[in-house]
Amino acid sequence: MPTNFTVVPVEDSAAASPDPEDGVERVQDDEVAVDSGPETCAEGDESPLEDSPFMSNSDHESSCYDGKNMALFEEEMDSNPMVSSLLNKLANYTNLTQGVVEHEEAENDRVAVKSPQMGTFIGVYLPCMQNILGVILFLRLTWIVGTAGIVGSFLIVFMCCACTMLTAISMSAIATNGVVPAGGSYYMISRSLGPEFGGAVGLCFYLGTTFAGSMYILGTIEILLMYIVKSAALFGMNDLTDPEEKTKAMLNNMRVYGTCCLAFMALLVFVGVKYVNKLALVFLSCVVLSIMAMYTGVIKTAISTPNDTVCLLGNRSLQNGNFEVCRKTEMRGNETQPTQLWELFCKGSLHNSTCDEYFDLNNVTEIKAIPGLLSGVITENLWGSYGPSGMLVEKKEQPSISVSDKTEERYESPARTYVVNDIATCFTLLVGIYFPSVTGIMAGSNRSGDLRDAQRSIPIGTILAIATTSIIYISCVLLFGASIEGVVLRDKFGESVKSSLVLGTLAWPSKWVIIIGSFFSCCGAGLQSLTGAPRLLQAIARDKLMPFLQVFGHAKANGEPTWALLLTAAICEIGILIASLDSVAPILSMFFLMCYLFVNLACAVQTLLRTPNWRPRFKFYHWTLSFLGMSLCLSLMFISSWYYALTTILIAGCIYKYIEYSGAEKEWGDGIHGLSLNAARYALIKLEEAPPHTKNWRPQVLVLLKLDSDLVVKHPRLLSFTTQLKAGKGLTIVSSVLEGAYMNRGADAKLSEQNVKAAMSAEKSKGFCHVVVSSNLRDGFSHLIQTAGLGGMKHNTVLIAWPANWKQKENPITWENFTETVRETTAAHQALLVAKNIDLFPSNHERLGEGTIDVWWIVHDGGLLMLLPFLLRQHKVWRKCKMRIFTVAQMDDNSIQMKKDLQMFLYHLRLDAEVEVVEMHESDISAFTYEKTLVMEQRSQMIKQMQLSKTEREREAQLIHDRHTRSHPAAHKDKVSPSPDGVHMTWTKEKLVSERSRNREASMAVRDLFNMKPEWESLNQSNVRRMHTAVKLNEAVVKKSKDAQLVLLNMPGPPKHTGGYENYMEFLEVLMEGLDRVLLVRGGGREVITIYS
Q1: Would you put residue 854 in left (φ > 0), alpha (ψ -120 to 50) or beta?
Q2: InterPro entries of this UniProt entry (predicted)?
């Protein structure tokens, strides 16, 4: 659980003063209390200071520097403190663990703990011992040894202890890699593997801890009702004869008493954890005394064995709670009388009775329950004895006369007198039941905030505790198997020894030492689970990874997580209602194994990535050990219960995807981020080794955006179209250029990037954003086209919007930039997409119904024209649109054969489209074409000859517009009005004569077309032919595709020289005239679609 840091300078007497009453320093807030002195520091630049892990921004503000020895660095003192100041802050900070220290003072008054004083033994070793040794050791280990045998039990204990030891090694490496605040495994995993893994595993660990509380409470009630106060059962178990009814009554008692016990413990935790902490030593003492009594009893059996006996009928173990004498008959005076045992199996008098057949054929034998270490019983207990529910507990070495060979008939005799299995047993089940006995290794790391030297204490204390408990468990397996009779070991509830705790019969000096000790041990473990689980949930909630958990991050005035405690109690009640310790144990085993798996994964990932920050003080680790521990955890999960394992993985996966979907923006420097960087680096290197094959080609789009005066995206539909084109796949780089110097417009660049990212998020366009500042727009776009992307992940397609108002712009820079972009993409062998009327394109929320996507295939440029409609139709916006392909046939072409060939080509490309061949016969160039060309050249000539100011260009454009669009004379003003800027135009004589001649032409009516032929003859014939092609092709496109949802056209190549920019723009304008949505496509010079598989 995260801890609150309170930095307290030693020499500061103003902010922190000793309290004469309690002698504890009090700090008014959580921030660093530093005397800023009488002088104030000079302000640095406007960039915000990044919070240091050691010093807050308030520290920087107070770190004034007046000396002269370091004057060279005085300008950096605002952001970079002196080393002496930094070391002073590091040497004088402490931390408060959340939930361990009781905050009984007011919320604003925090107790500044001067220095944690807990060492390795008290702070780590003993808490780990207390958490590891518990209910399974006292209630189930003897049964596991008897059922699995010494060999099988040794294997179970070894696997589980090896799993926790390997996990402890990985945890020690993580815990010693820097300061670990309280929070245990959740903090380590989340900060090592990222918020998604951290949240998923943190919740799994929380659920495991909560169900552990259920298990400990059930163990407490089992000890109470079966071994301490047997008469307290609300549902009488002793009066029932049917085993199934008896089991149901037992479960109902567990539910009632378990719920009451849970309510009492939750109330105790709610009142305050200080009471739980004060009782911790008492609970630990109970565990130690119980273990000492157990070992003492084992040693004593080598000298003298206990008097407890087991009664066998044939080789079957009997419940001796209903009879005192283990004989069929006994002498009372001079007469032979039947015993209580005889009455259980027979009806009638002694000489005229009907008895159970097995009872008649077999003798009754009484044997020692604890033969002792030197008895040789170890050989009988080497191997396991698994069986179904209801199977009789038998001593195989004892002679017996079987009644029937049929298994189902063996159990028809009075089952109430025999000891039977209450559940079906197998090796995998025992693994799941035993594993909770080795959990608790995180107790030391959870107290890291209270340790004097956490980086030294956690590894030593945890590993020593696991080694000690492993020795205890392994020795218990050997000693139990060597000193206790096998039928007693397999008797889970001690019914063959007067319903006593099996381990209690072995204890010395009295069985009550074990019974009382195990009772209080289970109580203490349950209280610790109910104390730790809510704080773990509170830590997860305060990280704001999952919005629905934020309510559980709140706490009452003294820091107690009330809402988290209520949820913990509710989940714990689910385990109580299950009511069976054997059913709850595998559940929490899954959650703990999942947690341990990711601790090992975190260590392995960090080690293999070799991140610079991975410098653990604990050196005895290796990535192979972490992978071995991870594999062992996963294996134990599926060995215990494959369906529980899959369920746990599914729960963790759902939490992971939820955190990922909710967009938890946490940057913790986690290993998954480093793993992504390494994987990306490897993939980029592999991609750069060879260009992608045609089959793998897909448009990697560089989107060149234009921003308005408020630095907001001017055409957001360009991003929508990118999303529709990409369908969420491939690379998208969204870029823009700001004109100016970076030192002056750096803040504008960051703001622009934020606005672009916001627009991308709104349009659901996934990709990268980059805004650059350049001295002019042309150079900026040129640099983006050349350098955008990295390695093999570079763009191959450029998407821009058509400059709709290029004729009305102030200067020719707009179309010059556009044409230069076209030329540079062509030179870089990149495809180019130009969208006209981009604001009319559909948004991502629209669904186009009936309509077509028309492709006008004039020249072959790699097949991009064919591929784009297919990609668009993958998106739900264009899915219902049909694809039509038009191609142009000349006089010498066979249009019928062209259509057949094109249909066959589309068939091989696996594309569904209608095909139409448009015949364009050679015709005379129309007068309209000449007129358009004349206007174009005249306008170009004027712009070249005259260096016009803003007002002059507007006037010239208006004169040309009037001359060719109006049929009546335009009024001519002799006076030249001043410009809007207040600057009067200065006319030379030559300009005045030229202007008057143009005005006379503008005032005339439209000339007869034949009178224009002398001017036509002077036109550039190349421009005339180009204009003729644009006009004729536009007529055909408008005729066929005017109602199409989208028209794709081959984009003509740019001029090879820089003098024809405006003519090129005019050709394109004429080509697209009369169409709403047009996408000009120019290929990159390589094939992007193939007919081969």
Answers
A1: beta
A2: AA-permease/SLC12A_dom, KCL_cotranspt, SLC12_C, SLC12A_fam
Query: What DSSP string describes 306-328?
Result: -S-EEEEETTEEB-TTS-S--SS
State whether the Cα torsion 692-693-698-702 is positive or negative.
positive
Is residue 918 within 8 A of residue 886, CB to CB? The reply is yes
587 vs 207: CA distance, rounded Å: 9
Structure tokens at 524: 């203490």
How confident is the model at residue 31, as a pLDDT?
A: 36
Q: Is the dihedral of CA 3, 465, 440, 192 positive or negative?
A: positive
Cα(644)–Cα(690) distance, rounded to whole angstroms? 47
H/E run at residue 885: strand 882-889
d(CA 600, CA 618) in angstroms, rounded, equals: 15
* CA–CA dist 1071, 1079 (Å, integer): 12
Which DSSP symbol is given to 555?
A: -
d(CA 44, CA 570): 54
Q: Tell me the sheet residues that pair with 853.
A: 883, 1046
Closest CA to 519 of 775, 735, 257, 322: 257
pLDDT higher than 90, residue 435: yes
| pTM > 0.90 | no
H-helix or E-strand spanning residue 255: helix 243-271
First to last CA, the chain: 56
Q: Count H helices, E strands: the chain?
A: 36, 22
Give the other-Cβ count within 10 Å of 761's Cβ: 12
Q: How far apart are CA 680 and CA 582, in angstroms?
A: 47
**φ/ψ (deg, to 5) at 382:** -65, -40
Tokens of 148: 């699995």
> What pLDDT score does 37 carry?
40
Count of CB atoms situated within 10 Å of the CB of 984: 10
Could you count the other beta carbons within 10 Å of the beta carbon of residue 605?
Answer: 23
Q: Distance between CA atoms of 818 and 67, rounded to whole angstroms?
A: 57
Residue 721: enclosing H or E segment and its boundaries? helix 717-726
Which residues, including other chains, have CB under 8 Å from residue 310's CB and lie 6 or more apart? 317, 318, 320, 366, 367, 368, 369, 485, 487, 488, 496, 497
Residue type, 300: K
Q: Indicate the DSSP class of residue 976.
A: P
Question: What's the one-letter identity of residue 431?
Answer: V
1015, pLDDT greater than 50: no
What are the distances in angstroms from CA 904 to CA 898, 950, 993? 10, 56, 64
